[in-house]
Amino acid sequence: MFWKVLYRLFHAKVLRFMSGKSHDSCPLKTEIDGIGAIDWFSYPEFNEKRQKLEPKCVDAHHLLFNLRSKVCKEGLQNINKNAWVAVAEYDRDVISKSLVVDLIDKQNNAFAKRTFSVEVETVMRNLGYSNEADFCKLVRDWYEAEDSPGISAKVRVENKIRLKEYLLKDVDFGKFPGYGMYIKGFPKGMFESFIQRIDTTLQLYDIIPTGTFNQRAVSSLVNETFFGELAEMEPTHLGCPKAVQIPRLMSIVAELLHYRCCPNERSFKMSTTRKSVYPVQKFNNVPSTSNVNDNQSLEEAIILRDHKFDMPSRGRRKQRISKRSDVTKPGEVTRGCLPVRQLHKSDESKILATRRLGIEHLSEN
What we know:
Elements: H1 2-19, E1 29-32, E2 36-39, E3 45-47, E4 52-54, H2 60-73, H3 82-90, H4 97-102, H5 109-115, H6 118-127, H7 130-147, H8 153-168, E5 182-183, E6 186-187, H9 188-207, H10 221-233, H11 246-261, E7 301-302, H12 312-315, H13 353-357
Parallel strand pairs: 1-7
Antiparallel strand pairs: 1-2, 3-4, 5-6
């Protein structure tokens, strides 16, 4: 117990030293309204130049992809990969063996959600895989807290904390020798990424001036949107601009997204969607946020507030149901198949650059 407390204190000191914050700005424990006390294992980085806290974390969708590959390929501590194989063999309509054994399209979100779905959990319980079924529910609840609308902030926090408690259960950082590449079967990077993601999204309730935020905003979708805009502006529409064109394209896209995302900065109407999900702000009626003093320290108490994304009315909206959550059945048109004339199609990328330049290899002489 002594070594565990000593490690925690040393770990917190190192984090505070790296973030440039004092002891008072990063408490070891914070009280969350309606939830209870929580210990922090991750702190936001402090930028000395901007004098601001910069929370950073891994995208939740990417974590779900990686976890699907891990449990289906090798399993985890007390989580047997054969549970998913047994479900696929029991009922092909629940999950296909191609998703479990072949692990096709590892970055497919629909496939990852199917791996931890309610149907898979139910069959696992019927087959006697209780631990794996509980794990499916745990991961599914966490992902819904990260991505699904219409869930209150309190329920989101509770679902995230349950996964964090599962990850840290029976984990002793004070033992010697310490953990190596794996912790409870999780790769060390994945283990830390999950905890960092959970702690960061909880700390944002305290750091953001409004005290609430849209859960989907904390993801890599912003970067992907920026890249999409860049590809649209690029002459070839392939996302591969020339080096001399990048400064001009970056300035145009940055200015476009600035006025699109800040209605108070423009005096004209810009249609950003076919049908607005949230109330549209009126022009010249939005208070400027330039003079808002952001909270640049972690308090010892956090009060949860629901965002419009968390309201029950947002959850009642019709959600798009993906039809690509499983592989096609025999007799159906297969996805991703190459065209008939693929073998005779011209593809100069397969030609070596040396061959196109007329340079001969020594092995050819």
